[in-house]
Amino acid sequence: MAAIGETQPAKHQEVGHKSLLQSDALYQYILETSVYPREPQPMKELREVTAKHPWNLMTTSADEGQFLNLLLKLINAKNTMEIGVYTGYSLLSTALALPEDGKILALDINRENYEIGLPIIEKAGVAHKIDFREGPALPLLDQMVDDVNFHGSFDFIFVDADKDNYLNYHKRLIDLVKIGGVIGYDNTLWNGSLVAPPDAPLRKYVRYYRDFVLELNKALAADTRVEICQLPVGDGITLCRRIC
Ligand SMILES: C[S@@+](CC[C@H](N)C(=O)[O-])C[C@H]1O[C@@H](n2cnc3c(N)ncnc32)[C@H](O)[C@@H]1O
């Protein structure tokens, strides 16, 4: 059923629409009332540059960027990690939230896309907080797990990369995040496909990653080392607070 105020086909049925809200009008209301007017100028600029990129579907949405920025301030995060940078929207929202001496270890297999956002990040005066490493995240995480100095050293870790590796990441990140620190897994509601009937016409990549996301959600719900909260912000974000 169409939501009040909607006459057009619902955008939430389109792949890549960045909200699971069933009312596009309500999502637009949130963006226009609470998000865009408070969005820092560099984030707006980066969002607009990213919108022109052919893979713009991958970017973190503005409402999620705002959420991350506030969350980082609420937990007084200083030392953070991000897996999956793309052009850097969530990275910039993190960098702007951290104190002057805050740090982000930013991992991505693709430096080219990061360089699209880098001039804006530099202009915003926060590039010094970022240590970007190009390459697959898993081997680097293994190296860090082998070094006890990294254990319990991160206040916040945001994971927004290859969904088929999320459980592999979790096995390692649980040692690297500090007790009381938070890991945020993005896309944990995966376009709403998690509850689609088996014969639903899903895009190939949505269908492929769906099983990994389902497995991750089950594993996180059963993991007694963390408290969790799954939020329907963006494409779903699950926060895990390490408790032991
Ligand atoms: C959804 S995008 C990240 C979006 C980003 N957080 C933002 O705010 O725009 C996913 C990113 O994960 C990266 N990626 C995919 N597999 C990876 C891996 N094994 N290790 C590190 N990064 C990876 C991709 O290159 C891509 O840039």
Provide structural commentary.
- 40% of the residues are buried.
- This protein has one domain (11-242): Rossmann fold.
- It is α/β, with parallel strands linked by helices and 244 residues long.
- The chain contains eight helices and seven strands.
- The protein has helices at residues 24-35, 41-51, 62-74, 89-97, 111-123, 137-146, 166-176, 204-222; strands at residues 79-83, 103-108, 130-134, 154-159, 177-186, 226-231, 237-242.
- It binds S-adenosylmethionine.
- S-adenosylmethionine binds next to helix 4 and strand 2.
Write a concise synopsis of the structure shown:
The chain is of the alpha/beta class.
Helix-residue proportion: 40-55%
From the N-terminal CA to the C-terminal CA, the straight-line distance is: 45 Å
Average per-residue pLDDT, rounded, comes to 93
Give the helices and strands as they follow along the chain.
Answer: HHHEHEHEHEHEHEE
Q: Quickly count the helices.
A: 8
By CATH reckoning, the class would read Alpha Beta
Strand count: 7
**Strand percentage, roughly?**
15-25%
CATH third-level topology = Rossmann fold
Q: Order of strands side by side in the largest beta sheet?
A: 3-2-1-4-5-7-6
Question: How large, in whole angstroms, is the Cα Rg?
Answer: 18 Å
- CATH homologous superfamily designation: Vaccinia Virus protein VP39
Please name the CATH architecture: 3-Layer(aba) Sandwich
| Class from secondary-structure proportions | alpha/beta
InterPro entries: Cation-dep_OMT, SAM-dependent_MTases_sf, SAM_O-MeTrfase
Protein name: Caffeoyl-CoA O-methyltransferase
GO molecular function, one term: S-adenosylmethionine-dependent methyltransferase activity
Keywords: Lignin biosynthesis, Metal-binding, Methyltransferase, S-adenosyl-L-methionine, Transferase
